[in-house]
């Protein structure tokens, strides 16, 4: 269970988040919504441990993120960044295998277990046929699914380790570079991961329709504060959308039809 | 592919001493009938040319591997071992000893260049670590580039106040010269290079992750700060040691890594050993060229690597958008 408890953060003297709390229970899909600059990505980076909260706590099963050993945290929680640009031309399989870092010793080579984890992750994300392609030559949608495969390979603790707790997958703006077809594919992939593998998913998005189609719980952020949270149909009302984006909900409402 | 490279290096090191302005015969070199002090061919082989070939192999391999590490650390395929000012610091140290050497005994050119490199490294590191937990690669780059031109100005100043003979020696050193006539500089550099290579071996997989960016690497379980620090200091140490032997020989640290990536792909566990082997072979070959093209005059090897490397670099630049 992932819990944020009255979390605040500032870059220098500019406050970005104040008093944000939420709970992502096991096997939930949580969407963090809000306009540009509302603090979505900062909140996500606080959850990954890339940033430390100024005050408040973010915990996984009661353990504060900052106190967890990095490698153990990585086996439990994976992040899909908005965009991934490797500095060199790795193949898709190599990018996926990078997810196995936290499972290997300092000088250890990837073994059959790691290859199996990578293969099954690529099958789950529909990228098995891309494994020998160079990552930079893939389309935006293919790249994202390869990065999702890398995250799944990272979370694959094998059958032996059933005490490890359910995996957590964080995605930053996963629909940003995707066309409609890939958005639908991504939505069904996330739901499948959530239902079949009990992966807790937390994502940020601008896309109200995507959020209401995929998420069970949405958090509406405005200027660093939680304006409302709960089931999407309860939170994404005419009133809240108008308050947040300054546009009437009937502009947004066709998008809310699933 | 790595096996071919691994075979090429010793072959090059052993073959190179037989090529030169004075021909020597293989049968004579290893002949047991003559005592060593009367066997001219063996003396040329073991005392004049073999240390030089070994130095070329060591310097070439070290610079190429350091280039790989800097490119991954800075996430910039155009980075070289000299981008962050290590060579400029080393050059300034060497210049000072060449010009004012008489007044500072016990401090050879190699020692002074190591000290200069160390100074440059500490300045750049302090700047990059000052306002950032971990290392800011942007500040690293900016500080390195600034320090490079600052030290270059100091080098020019030292050149300006020195006389012709000193100036000529200094210029030759700056061109990158493998005029090594004993095993001493090799033995001096070897522990530093060995230590750096040990770090490179550990860094191979972390460098793969770092090329995704700090956040991506951290989220996959890498301690980014530790990896960045180790990469920075080990690659700087390797560069400083290599420059103390051969001067700031250019382009090996950039063309070899790119060529190796074309052969073996991007995985640093292959790119680093491949670059060590191919970098060594490449510089041994360049050194043979530098000794023979204008024989009996020897050209500084840095001129050869730059003549070969310059066009290659431009081609790379055009290729990577």
Please tell me about this protein's structure.
The complex is a heterodimer of chains A (258) and B (321). Chain A has 258 residues and is of the alpha/beta class. Chain A contains 10 helices and 10 strands. In chain A, the strands form 2 sheets. In chain A, strands 6-7-8-3-9-10 form a 6-stranded mixed β-sheet, with helices on both faces. Chain A has a 4-stranded antiparallel β-sheet with strand order 2-1-4-5, with helices on one face. In chain A, β4 (55-60) and β5 (63-64) form a beta hairpin. In chain A, α4 crosses α5 and α9 (238-245) crosses α10. Chain B has a single domain (2-319), classed as ABC transporter involved in vitamin B12 uptake, BtuC (Orthogonal Bundle). Chain B is 74% helix and 0% strand. Chain B has helices spanning 2-15, 26-29, 40-73, 86-100, 109-130, 137-161, 164-175, 184-210, 214-219, 224-246, 252-264, 268-292, 301-319. In chain B, α5 packs antiparallel against α10 and α8 runs antiparallel to α12. The longest helix of chain B is centred in the first third of the chain and has 34 residues, at 40-73. Chain B is globular and about 65 Å long. Chain B starts with a helix and ends with a helix. The chains are: A alpha/beta (258), B mainly alpha (321). The interface between A and B is medium-sized, with 33 and 27 residues.
Give a nutshell description of this structure:
The complex is a heterodimer of chains A (258) and B (321). By secondary structure, chain A is an alpha/beta fold.
């Amino acid at each position: 269970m992932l819990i944020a408890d009255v979390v605040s953060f500032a870059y220098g003297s500019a406050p970005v988040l104040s008093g944000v709390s939420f709970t992502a229970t096991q096997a939930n899909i949580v969407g963090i919504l809000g306009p540009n600059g509302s603090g979505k990505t900062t909140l996500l980076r606080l959850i990954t441990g890339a940033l430390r909260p100024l005050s408040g706590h973010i915990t996984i099963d009661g353990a504060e993120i900052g106190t967890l050993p990095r490698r153990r945290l990585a086996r439990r929680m994976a992040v899909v960044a908005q965009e991934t640009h490797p500095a060199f031309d790795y193949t898709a399989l190599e990018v996926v295998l990078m997810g196995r870092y936290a499972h290997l010793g300092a000088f250890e080579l990837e073994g059959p277990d790691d290859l199996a984890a990578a293969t099954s992750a690529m099958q789950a994300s529909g990228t098995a046929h891309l494994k020998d392609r160079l990552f930079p030559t893939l389309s935006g949608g293919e790249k994202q699914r390869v990065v999702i495969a890398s995250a799944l390979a990272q979370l694959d603790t094998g059958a032996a380790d059933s005490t490890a707790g359910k995996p957590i997958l964080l995605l930053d703006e996963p629909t940003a570079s995707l066309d409609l077809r890939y958005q639908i594919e991504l939505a069904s992939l996330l739901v499948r991961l959530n239902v079949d593998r009990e992966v807790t998913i937390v994502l940020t998005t601008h896309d109200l329709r995507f959020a209401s189609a995929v998420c069970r719980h949405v958090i509406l952020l405005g200027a660093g504060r939680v304006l409302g949270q709960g089931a999407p149909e309860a939170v994404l009302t005419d009133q809240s959308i108008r308050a947040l984006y300054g546009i009437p909900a009937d502009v947004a409402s066709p998008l809310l039809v699933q | 592919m790595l096996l071919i490279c691994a075979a090429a290096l010793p072959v090059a090191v052993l073959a190179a001493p037989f090529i030169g302005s004075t021909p020597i015969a293989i049968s004579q070199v290893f002949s047991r009938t003559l005592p060593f002090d009367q066997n001219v061919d063996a003396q040329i082989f073991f005392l004049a040319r073999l240390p030089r070939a070994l130095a070329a192999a060591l310097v070439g391999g070290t610079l190429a591997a350091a280039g790989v590490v800097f490119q991954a650390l800075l996430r910039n395929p155009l980075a070289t071992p000299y981008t962050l000012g290590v060579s400029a610091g080393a050059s300034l140290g060497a210049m000072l000893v060449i010009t004012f050497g008489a007044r500072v005994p016990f401090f050879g050119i190699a020692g002074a260049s190591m000290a200069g490199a160390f100074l440059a490294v500490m300045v750049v590191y302090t700047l990059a670590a000052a306002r950032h937990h971990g290392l800011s690669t942007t500040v690293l780059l900016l500080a390195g580039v600034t320090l490079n031109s600052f030290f270059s100005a100091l080098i020019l100043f030292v050149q300006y106040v020195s006389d012709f003979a000193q100036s000529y020696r200094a210029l030759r050193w700056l061109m990158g010269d493998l005029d090594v006539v004993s095993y001493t500089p090799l033995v001096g550099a070897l522990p530093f290079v060995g230590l750096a290579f040990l770090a490179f071996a550990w860094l191979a997989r972390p460098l793969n992750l770092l090329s995704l960016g700090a956040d991506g690497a951290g989220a996959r379980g890498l301690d980014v700060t530790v990896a960045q620090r180790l990469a920075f200091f080990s690659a700087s140490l390797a560069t400083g040691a290599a420059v103390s032997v051969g001067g700031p020989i250019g382009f090996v640290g950039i063309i070899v890594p790119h060529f190796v990536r074309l052969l073996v792909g991007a995985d640093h566990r292959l790119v680093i050993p491949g670059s060590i082997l191919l970098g060594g072979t490449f510089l041994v070959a360049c050194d043979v060229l530098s000794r023979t093209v204008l024989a009996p005059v020897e050209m500084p090897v840095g001129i050869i690597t730059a003549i070969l490397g310059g066009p290659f670099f431009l081609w790379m630049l055009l290729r990577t958008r």
